[in-house]
Amino acid sequence: MKQISAKLAGEISLGKELSVHRLGFGAMRLTGDGIWGPPKDRKAALAVLRRAVELDVNFIDTADSYGPYVSEELIAEALFPYPKGLVIATKGGWNRPGPNQWTHDATPDHLRKAVEGSLKRLKLDRIDVYQLHIPDPVVPFEASVETLAELRDEGKIRLIALSNVTREHIERARRMVPIVSVQNRYSFADREWDYVVDYCDLYEIAFIPWFPLAAGKVAGEVLNEIARAHQATPKQVALAWLLRRSPIMLPIPGTSSVEHLEENVAAASLHLTDEEYERLAAVPELVASR
Ligand SMILES: NC(=O)c1ccc[n+]([C@@H]2O[C@H](COP(=O)([O-])OP(=O)(O)OC[C@H]3O[C@@H](n4cnc5c(N)ncnc54)[C@H](OP(=O)(O)O)[C@@H]3O)[C@@H](O)[C@H]2O)c1
User: Fold this and answer.
1) 253 lines ligand 1 (CB under 6 A)
2) Does pLDDT of 212 surpass 90?
3) pTM of the model
């Protein structure tokens, strides 16, 4: 049987301070429906996290708002004391009034409380990677970033990152503090943020695509064909495309199932031909022309 290991995706540096395998795990889907409350099957959720680490996944993405709190609590329950080299990247900047509801709060006061809460739930003295989940439209962006810079200086955060941002946000933040990663919605079929990927590539900032397995009908047809040629699954092909898109790409496919996790990590060893890569890259144009 083929080896399944996140190591096969290669390594990526985070701010030249930490190094992780280039296929991580997104822990949002471990919570209840609507990213709310506990999982239906707690044992199964813990098993997914433990299996991810067994498969050499050493980058786990989470947020205080997933559950809220549930995703971070599950990570600590499953994995603490953490294996050496495991990097947990969490986020703050949202409030959760109910299932599927997300309200902004990236005020300095909220971010400070959020970091304290994440430290406690994750049982850490310092968070390796802390991401501003999303700029808050009613809070000056610089005020949110400045707060994270202060928390870094206080030793509560090691590295600072951004999510759901434009290139302008990244440039403004980088004038204040080094930014090690950017997390935006992205897949071969969803390329709104191509220019941000290119910017990250230029400055060696990791790009973490969320919703990496997205694919509409047309995308699905192309995926299926390429998947058949590799005896792979369409999801694996979508991940292989991302891994090939740029060496700064760090996909974090999310799942609540061990079977899907194993399938996703196995994509680390799937290599597309140039032609396959280009066919998938052209899907957004194909969709637009139909
Ligand atoms: N920064 C942000 O604003 C933001 C927003 C959304 C997500 N994220 C992060 O990004 C991570 C990934 O994003 P995502 O969860 O939205 O998208 P995703 O990883 O593309 O998709 C997850 C969905 O696909 C299913 N799935 C996963 N692997 C599969 C497989 N091999 N075969 C069939 N179905 C599969 C999962 O269901 P099953 O559980 O049934 O496998 C789940 O419903 C999240 O976990 C979270 O950490 C960040």
Assistant:
1) yes
2) no
3) 0.97
- Percent share of the chain, pLDDT over 90: 93
User: Residue with the nearest Cα to atom 42 of ligand 1?
Assistant: 255
Residue of the nearest CA to atom 32 in ligand 1?
260
Q: Is the CB of 182 under 6 A from ligand 1?
A: no
With the most atoms of ligand 1 within 8 angstroms of its CB, the residue from 4, 25, 28, 193 to mutate is: 28
**How many beta carbons lie within 10 A of that of residue 31, not counting itself?**
26
CA distances from 175 to 145, 146, 170 (A): 10, 11, 9
The CA distance from 89 to 159, in Å, is 9
Question: Is position 66 annotated as part of the catalytic site?
Answer: yes
Q: Is 279 in the pocket of ligand 1 (CB under 6 A)?
A: no
The minimum-distance atom of ligand 1 relative to the CA of 256 is 39
Residue 111: burial class (beta carbons within 10 Å; 0-12, 13-18, 19+): buried
Helix (H, G, I), strand (E, B) or coil at 106: coil
H/E element, 89: strand 87-92
Q: What is the pLDDT of residue 224?
A: 94
Q: Please give the structure tokens belonging to residue 1.
A: 């049987």
CA separation (Å) from 64 to 74, 221, 257? 12, 37, 21
